[in-house]
């Protein structure tokens, strides 16, 4: 690890982060990060400065997955850059790509504040965003106007609009997903698409994690002629039997893979459950997702071999955690909480550890 990198890490962890955590709510801190990141992404000099500290420039660790080349196998997970404002800066922080969204057919204001609560001792965030985003039309406009950064993959996560009116019936919910998918596909925005069926805090709940309803959604989505990889964002709190049925349906309809997985709804999985809001107020990110996601990745890999791509996400807080996800069977990994509870150099540290592990594995 270079000296400049260590100095920044100490400065960030011992000065900037404690101040940020003390003075800002997570919602404000997130808004600040997105505004600063979007600004920095516009200027080559600022991107170069961020790269100087945080971009991985070691041995080649690129990976081709479903025909797409990832410069590094780490992506920013869906929900942090919901409106696609950070596409020009994240490569400088060692991300090989990101999943924008989840985006929806109609604009969503999201749930009332607070939409995020930090549970610092638990290394977790209570997420109650409720799919707050500008809507797919605005996203398409923005991404068309934003020049792409080379060797940086953009996936787009698609969810059902969080509104009572849109979701009066199952058919209306399906039509809402299909509308967004079609629009993105026709506008040729995004390198891959994800169907998010597992948002735990939007109106109507997770309708399509029901194995009897999921085939109806897939039947309609599969009518859209799309040549890009399609993934399903899986829930992590359902019994293996139901999970397996969802996988079977996904496979039957020819999706390329699954993202395992979304937030944990079980507050008992916290190290300190007494820190959580008394009433359920959104899913948990971070540490409480780690083991659940790893177990499901292992089982999915064992059942499907290389037939399904697996993107592993949930509770990656250290480079060793990242390796565990790969060892469990993930082809790529995604993260959010590890960047928040760690520091902006976390992704570079993961790349370095991954490169070391890979070269060790090859030499054996
Ligand atoms: C603030 C926040 C918002 C999120 N919003 C979404 C979303 O819109 N769509 C989605 O598929 N997942 C969403 N998630 C879940 C993450 O993509 C990820 O699955 C989860 O946080 C576990 O990863 P982590 O432990 O690295 O944070 C969100 C997570 C956070 C922290």
UniProtKB/TrEMBL annotation:
Pfam families attached to this UniProt entry: DHO_dh
Keyword Flavoprotein listed: yes
Role summary: Catalyzes the conversion of dihydroorotate to orotate with quinone as electron acceptor.
Family, per entry: Belongs to the dihydroorotate dehydrogenase family. Type 2 subfamily.
Protein name (record): Dihydroorotate dehydrogenase (quinone)
InterPro entries in UniProt: Aldolase_TIM (IPR013785), DHO_dehydrogenase (IPR050074), Dihydroorotate_DH_2 (IPR005719), Dihydroorotate_DH_cat (IPR005720), Dihydroorotate_DH_CS (IPR001295)
CC cofactor: FMN
Chief location: membrane
Signal sequence annotation: none
Entry keywords, A to Z: Flavoprotein, FMN, Membrane, Oxidoreductase, Pyrimidine biosynthesis
Gene Ontology BP annotations: 'de novo' pyrimidine nucleobase biosynthetic process; 'de novo' UMP biosynthetic process
């Amino acid at each position: 690890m270079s000296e400049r990198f260590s100095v920044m890490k100490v400065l960030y962890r011992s000065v900037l982060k404690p101040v940020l955590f003390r003075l800002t709510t997570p919602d404000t801190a997130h808004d600040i990060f997105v505004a600063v990141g979007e600004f920095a992404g516009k200027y080559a000099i600022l991107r170069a400065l961020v790269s100087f500290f945080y971009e991985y420039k070691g041995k080649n660790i690129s990976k081709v997955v479903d025909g797409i080349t990832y410069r590094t196998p780490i992506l920013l997970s869906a929900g942090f850059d919901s409106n696609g404002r950070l596409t020009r800066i994240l490569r400088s922080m060692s991300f090989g790509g990101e999943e924008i969204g989840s985006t929806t057919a109609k604009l969503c204001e999201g749930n009332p504040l607070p939409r995020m609560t930090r549970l610092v001792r638990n290394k977790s965030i209570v997420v109650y965003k409720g799919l707050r985003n500008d809507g797919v039309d605005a996203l398409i406009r923005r991404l068309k106007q934003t020049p792409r950064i080379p060797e940086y993959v953009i996936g787009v996560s698609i969810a059902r609009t969080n509104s009572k009116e849109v979701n009066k019936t199952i058919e209306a919910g399906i039509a809402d997903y299909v509308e967004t998918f079609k629009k993105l596909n026709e506008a040729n925005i995004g390198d891959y698409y994800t169907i998010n069926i597992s948002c735990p805090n939007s109106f109507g709940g997770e309708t399509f994690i029901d194995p009897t309803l999921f085939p109806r959604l897939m039947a309609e989505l599969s009518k859209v002629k799309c040549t890009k990889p399609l993934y399903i964002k899986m829930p992590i709190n359902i019994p293996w039997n139901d999970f397996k049925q969802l996988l079977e349906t996904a496979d039957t309809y020819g999706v390329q893979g699954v993202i395992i997985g979304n937030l944990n709804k079980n507050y008992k999985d916290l190290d300190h459950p007494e820190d959580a809001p008394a009433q359920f107020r959104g899913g948990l990110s971070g540490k409480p997702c780690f083991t659940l996601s790893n177990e499901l990745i292992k089982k999915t890999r064992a059942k499907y071999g290389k037939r399904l791509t697996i993107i592993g996400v949930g509770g990656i807080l250290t480079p060793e955690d990242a390796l565990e996800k790969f060892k469990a069977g993930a082809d790529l990994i995604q993260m959010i909480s590890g960047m928040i509870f760690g520091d902006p150099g976390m992704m570079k540290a993961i790349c370095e550890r991954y490169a070391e592990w890979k070269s060790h594995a090859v030499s054996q």
